[in-house]
């Protein structure tokens, strides 16, 4: 009898620059097997383009039948990038029981911008008792608003204790306009009205954007004959159905980093680890605890706004393979400094532009003395001309001089003022600077070979000619300076990982790492008093360049460093191996002695006995969690219920204050049969 083939799982990560795809099978044990992986440039104007490029490549590499794919799962930075860049649809905010002064809290007014807001009397108190609701003002405004916004966000005072007024407003809006409505109690059970309103507002803005992503993905899958459920990674690393994500897109912020943590755990089997993901521009560091990403207890912060979304506690640093390499100013023995700005590596510029770059580097090397601008070029980024609107006279003149071919800075700039002007053009995303980076150093040493090593070597020679405070060259050979650059990158990576660890321990990470004793420990500095520092868990290194940059990490952090085989597609792999996980909450309070009020889901009920109220709360959250798990995409959820009591003791007698009941449902996503 022929063995039944294992089902195939397709993971997709839609990043800001690249879309990754990985085809995975459960064949070969718990870790399964990566059958193929591929990358394609993300096409923001039509997301299906980048998705099709990556997915078609893995199908071709694996020679797999698209019909054999039984589950598709996707992580995305689309929502995160949209909030950072201030994008999203125009929505109307409805505030029930709040005053205009509340807009000034938690950045709500800044987030609202010029979008309309409607205030209505109503809301509840902490025990769910109702104030008088008046929606007449909202009803009068809806005909006009319905034609000028893409959706509505509704937030009522203490809606987490009684959502009745939000439900009434939501039903009224849907009946009159037919537009999407997000109610705050659907997104968070936490107190803090203005921040809950902010989260609801951002969610409403993202609905159309995530809807386009899901529609583009579903359309592509249908064309390829892939009839499998589509899942999306949330910011806490859990999977939810595409339909679930369409209604709550705010929960997909930090989806990409969360997926990379899930992928890291899957590839290594480690439950407790520091995870460091190094890219071209940044390094992201987070913590795995008990097999799950450690979450930010205050809620995810994206684009400067603190939300109520549970997401990974991720710290991002401006350190990567393409970081700018500079020297410390004014020191006798200057240190090498990296980042935070990203440069186009000289090796890449040489590969693309050839003689235009190498001839200038050779000219600079023939000069008797090194120049401050040696090895630096400017070129346009290629954005549409309309994005260059509003430039000052000096900015416009300099921008006109710069073209698509790299231009040496010592020919372009004649003053410090022009250098400041150039930096403003770079900050606006109109111009790239090309220069010496760790990626170039890796090419010089033969540790990287995808671009032009000869151009990288010329850049390293120029950098090595620079002078220290004594007037001596800082390095004798290109190889020597390149090794110092790579050593510095590894050293800084260790410091950032330790900084994250200190911060997670409740200490001021940056200040602690900067302390002289910790510096001495990382350096293994000799002395009468010696210091050591060590992590309690190993580091998992992610990113295409992790095998190179993290090889020397273990002695610096006092623990091992594991770089998985498929580290370059950790996000896409994490998207496909995760689990569905949803929760439901209920609260029991005591408005007056002998009365126990249960608020769960969309209902509020009163009981005369504490035990009966708690029993009902636990039954409610179990049922709600089971329903949400099914909606989120699993038919095999396991449900755990935990109850936390707040009580006091008065004259030896126990006094009930409140009970918080939480049910968590988790399970593998359903797959196509």
What does this structure look like?
There is one protein chain. The protein is built from 22 helices and 29 strands. The relative contact order is 0.10. A hairpin with a 4-residue loop joins strand 11 (273-278) and strand 12. The protein starts with 7 loop residues before the first strand and ends in a 6-residue tail after the last strand.
Features:
673 residues; 6-stranded mixed beta sheet; 29 strands; alpha/beta; globular; 37% helix
What is this entry, summarized?
It is built from 22 helices and 29 strands.
Which structural class do the helices and strands define?
alpha/beta
User: Major beta sheet, specifics?
Assistant: 6 strands, mixed
Measured as a percent range, the helix fraction is 25-40%
Number of strands: 29
What would the principal axes of the Cα set say about the shape?
A: globular
Give the terminus-to-terminus CA distance. 21 Å
Using only C-alpha atoms, the radius of gyration works out to 28 Å
Q: What does the secondary structure layout of this molecule look like, with pairings?
A:
Elements: E1 8-14, E2 18-25, E3 33-41, H1 47-62, E4 69-76, H2 78-84, E5 91-96, H3 108-112, E6 117-120, H4 136-145, E7 151-156, H5 164-177, E8 181-183, H6 193-223, E9 230-233, E10 239-241, H7 242-247, H8 255-268, E11 273-278, E12 283-289, E13 292-293, E14 301-302, E15 305-306, E16 315-317, E17 323-327, E18 336-342, E19 344-345, H9 346-353, H10 355-366, E20 377-380, H11 393-401, E21 407-408, H12 409-412, H13 416-427, E22 431-435, H14 438-444, H15 453-464, H16 478-504, H17 509-514, H18 516-523, E23 539-542, H19 546-549, H20 554-557, E24 561-562, H21 570-577, E25 580-592, E26 595-600, E27 603-607, H22 610-632, E28 638-650, E29 653-667
Parallel strand pairs: 1-4, 4-9, 5-6, 5-7, 7-8, 11-23, 19-22, 23-24
Antiparallel strand pairs: 1-2, 2-3, 9-10, 11-12, 12-13, 12-16, 14-15, 17-18, 20-21, 20-22, 25-26, 25-29, 26-27, 28-29
């Amino acid at each position: 009898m022929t063995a039944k083939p294992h089902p195939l799982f397709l993971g997709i990560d839609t990043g800001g620059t690249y879309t990754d795809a990985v085809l995975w099978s459960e064949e070969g044990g718990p870790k399964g097997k990566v059958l193929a992986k591929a990358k394609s440039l993300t096409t923001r104007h039509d997301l299906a383009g980048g998705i099709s490029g990556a997915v078609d490549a893995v199908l071709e590499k694996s020679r797999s039948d698209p019909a054999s794919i039984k589950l598709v799962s996707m992580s995305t930075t689309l929502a995160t990038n949209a909030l950072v860049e201030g994008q999203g649809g125009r929505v109307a905010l409805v505030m029930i029981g709040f005053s205009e002064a509340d807009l000034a809290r938690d950045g709500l007014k800044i987030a609202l911008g010029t979008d309309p807001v409607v205030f209505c009397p109503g809301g509840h108190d902490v025990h769910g008792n109702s104030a008088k609701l008046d929606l007449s003002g909202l009803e009068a405004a809806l005909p006009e608003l319905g034609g000028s916004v893409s959706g509505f966000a509704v937030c009522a005072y203490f809606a987490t204790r009684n959502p009745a007024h939000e439900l009434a407003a939501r039903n009224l809006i849907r009946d009159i306009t037919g537009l999407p409505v997000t109610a705050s109690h659907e997104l968070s059970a936490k107190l803090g009205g203005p921040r809950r309103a902010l989260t609801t507002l951002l969610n409403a803005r993202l609905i159309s954007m995530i809807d386009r992503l899901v529609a583009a993905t579903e359309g592509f899958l249908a064309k390829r004959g892939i009839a499998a459920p589509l899942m999306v990674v949330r910011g806490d690393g859990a999977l939810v159905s595409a339909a679930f994500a369409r209604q709550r897109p705010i929960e997909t912020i930090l989806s990409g980093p969360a997926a990379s943590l899930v992928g890291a755990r899957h590839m290594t089997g480690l439950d407790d680890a520091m995870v460091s993901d190094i890219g071209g521009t940044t390094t992201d560091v987070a913590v795995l605890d008990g097999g799950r990403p450690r979450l930010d207890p205050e809620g995810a912060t994206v684009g400067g706004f603190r939300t109520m979304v549970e997401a990974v506690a991720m710290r991002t640093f401006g350190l990567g393979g393409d970081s700018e390499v500079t020297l410390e100013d004014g020191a006798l023995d200057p240190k090498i400094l990296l980042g935070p700005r990203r440069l186009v590596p000289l090796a890449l510029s040489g590969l693309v532009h050839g003689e235009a770059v190498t001839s200038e580097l050779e000219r600079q090397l023939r000069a008797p003395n090194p120049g401050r601008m040696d090895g630096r070029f400017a070129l346009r980024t290629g954005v549409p001309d309309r994005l260059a609107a509003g430039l000052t006279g000096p900015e416009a003149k300099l921008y006109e001089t710069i073209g698509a071919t790299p231009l040496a800075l010592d020919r372009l700039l004649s003053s410090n003022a022009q250098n400041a002007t150039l930096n403003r053009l770079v900050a606006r995303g109109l111009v790239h600077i090309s220069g010496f980076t760790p990626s170039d150093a890796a090419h010089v040493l033969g540790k990287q070979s995808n671009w032009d090593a000869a151009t990288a070597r010329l850049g390293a020679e120029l950098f090595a000619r620079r002078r220290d405070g004594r007037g001596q060259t800082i390095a004798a050979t290109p190889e020597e300076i390149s090794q110092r650059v790579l050593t510095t990158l590894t050293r800084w990576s260790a410091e950032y990982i330790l900084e994250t660890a200190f911060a997670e321990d409740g200490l001021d990470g940056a200040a602690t790492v900067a302390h002289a004793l910790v510096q001495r420990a990382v350096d293994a500095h000799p002395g009468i008093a010696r210091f050591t520092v060590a992590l309690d868990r190993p580091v998992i290194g992610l990113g295409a360049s992790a095998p190179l940059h993290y090889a020397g990490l273990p002695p610096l952090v006092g623990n091992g460093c594991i770089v998985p085989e498929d580290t370059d597609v950790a996000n896409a792999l994490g998207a496909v191996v995760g689990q569905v996980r949803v929760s439901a909450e209920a609260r029991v309070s005591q408005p007056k002695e002998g009365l126990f009020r249960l608020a769960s889901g969309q209902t509020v009920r009163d009981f005369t006995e504490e035990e009966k109220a708690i029993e009902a709360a636990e039954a409610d959250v179990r049922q709600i969690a089971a329903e949400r798990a099914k909606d989120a995409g699993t038919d095999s959820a396991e449900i755990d219920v935990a109850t936390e009591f707040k009580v006091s003791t008065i004259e030896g007698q126990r006094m009930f204050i409140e009970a918080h009941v939480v049910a968590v449902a988790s399970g593998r996503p359903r797959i196509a049969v």
